[in-house]
Predict the 3D structure of the following.
Amino acid sequence: MADIILGIESSCDDTSAAVIRDGWLLSNVIASQDVHKAYGGVVPELASRAHELNIVPVVSEALSRAGVQPADLTAIAFTRGPGLLGSLLVGTSFAKALGLALDIPIIMVNHLQGHILADFIKEPGVEVRQPAFPYLCLLVSGGNSQIVRVDGPLEYTILGQTIDDAVGEAFDKCSKMMGLGYPGGPVIDRLAKEGNPRRFKFAKPRIPGLDYSFSGIKTSLLYFVRDEMAKDPDFLQNNKEDICASFQNTLVDILLDKLVKAARQTGIKDITIGGGVSANSCLRGRIEAEGRKRGWRTFLPPFKFTTDNAAMIAIAGYFRYQAGESTPLDVAPVSRMANF
């Protein structure tokens, strides 16, 4: 009998539901919230209210596209954390209610685990290409920057992580500081394609081991722009493409320096990336180039699986269900999760 998993993702400002049958994706529906652009970032109260409006139609649409009835479901996977507590509460509560009504198990998933396992989502008509265990995942998003060793679907070791800001946060804050808009990553990536990545130099942190730091480069950019605009008020407007290209290239340098070091130390040659920043074109191109140079097998998730989506929650829930896991109905969402 097939295992059919409904995945629900509501950690931030996207309401998403997906259906997976035995690891194969049947549907993946996402409702985004444009209201936050006016504020330069996600407003938690507005996000949770939008989730309340979106959750029922999004789940209904995901089931309809998959050709699945609620009674066909084997289990419901949902994001418990990390994320915005109000947003998580909507998805968690819905999963509990539906699981109770259908008398099927619910399975909590760490949002980050979903990003790590995105390469295992199988799609009809798409070549199946998956990393072999153990592999390294460079997990990069607005809230996390980690190098994770993955020894199995449920076996993880964090080898390095940011000691301050995440790389996605650096993109967003520096974009806002330059008046380029939100979210910052896509804006900087677009402008960087027209700029010279070697024109300007920004400070790189010297952090021992495999840990990251991105607070210093933000300060470096801030002072650089301030000093140059004191000499030429039009400096930012006239040089924004080169600034973005140089800033982005420095961030990718920092990420790849530690990833190369981790691969060398572990001897692992299957390398994946995950999280929202894994959509960055510079990072994707550079990591493929490193792979060719160093004999890695690199795995880049499709763009639709780089942002928050329920397909990754469903595949993570599928592996947990296969391992015999289930979650009690008294579970509560958490804004931070220490373990996968």
Q: What stands out?
A: The domain at 4-126+305-322 is CATH 3.30.420.40 (Nucleotidyltransferase; domain 5). Strands lie at 4-9, 15-21, 24-31, 75-81, 106-110, 135-140, 145-152, 155-161, 270-274, 297-299. The first strand starts at residue 4 and ends at 9. The chain has two domains: 4-126+305-322, 135-302.
